[in-house]
């Protein structure tokens, strides 16, 4: 199956108002094409700036076969380099985060500065020119305190993509936040099932009791903005009377507000890799990474104001409860759907009027898959 063929199949289903067909969830060749055409050309959330606050701190970002090291250099800049030694290709660092003053290949000890500049290579001939072998750089950008990387050298600037959400997100002062907690979930479902689930609340009334104590499903979609290619979406989230935050009781989880002025809650999606939901007292960031055709890694990061202290200004269990419970409920639904779409008897039905953002995701998917980004 080629990219245009898959895109045409999806566009046909869009025109007919149908869900995604079985073969788009099940084809191994298509999955590899998605990694290359979509994820390796998209902006990938790496970290909040507070996770790279000190020189030497780093995180790795994984995408398919690729790995990127994002760090705060000893000179204080944010740098992104491919996690591949210029000698014989060994990974320099294992996946995860840590701190290092330089990058040294564990195989033959070729050494590099954090910005990729080669420092030296032992036992090479006298005419070896280390300036010819720096680590390959990846594009890196910071938006509202959030650090992203992109493997595509020709990628649209991140600020241009997210401009339609700038005025809605900026008042929450995400650059002035810090990470309170982070969870990575292993979801046994195709990444598209995970994103489709995140795009609708048709399922919410029955499946998300904790979320619906504060969240007003009837108000979903108010003040909706979408980019022309459907990849970026910004939505105000309505709360029920008396609720001011998405928590179990609708009251602030943290006594240190991130937002000054009239309170509101907003969600911004950059399909299909990133979403942020901002409440007056905290924010959550989601990052999706396809691992296999039927497995997706989803990381959620909870942010609070930098001067908020756990146990004094917020209770961590209360802070994470609504989203952690909602996530677990969603992953169970995605995994149940994964089991169903494997059946040769699965045939997608029509989307409901409660699923316009699912249709928008399908349009964005067809566009990205066809290389029309």
Q: How does this model look, in words?
A:
This protein has 373 residues and is an alpha+beta fold. Strands 11-17-16-15-14-13-12 form a seven-stranded antiparallel beta sheet, covered by helices on one side. A hairpin with a 2-residue loop joins strand 16 and strand 17. The protein starts with a helix and ends with a helix.
Please write out the topology:
Elements: H1 3-15, H2 23-26, H3 28-37, E1 44-48, E2 57-63, E3 66-72, E4 78-82, E5 97-99, E6 103-104, E7 111-112, E8 118-120, E9 139-143, E10 146-150, H4 158-161, H5 166-169, E11 177-187, H6 191-198, H7 204-207, E12 225-226, E13 232-236, E14 266-270, E15 274-278, E16 283-292, E17 295-305, H8 316-341, H9 356-369
Antiparallel strand pairs: 1-10, 2-3, 2-5, 3-4, 6-7, 7-8, 9-10, 11-17, 12-13, 13-14, 14-15, 15-16, 16-17
Helix pairs in contact: 1-9, 6-8
Summarize the structure.
With 373 residues, this protein is an alpha+beta fold. It has 9 helices and 17 strands.
User: Main sheet, how many strands, which sense, barrel?
Assistant: 7 strands, antiparallel
Nearest-integer average pLDDT: 95
Low-confidence stretches: none
Task: Give me the number of helical elements.
Answer: 9
Compute the number of strand runs.
17
The helical percent reads 10-25%
Secondary-structure element order, N to C: HHHEEEEEEEEEEHHEHHEEEEEEHH
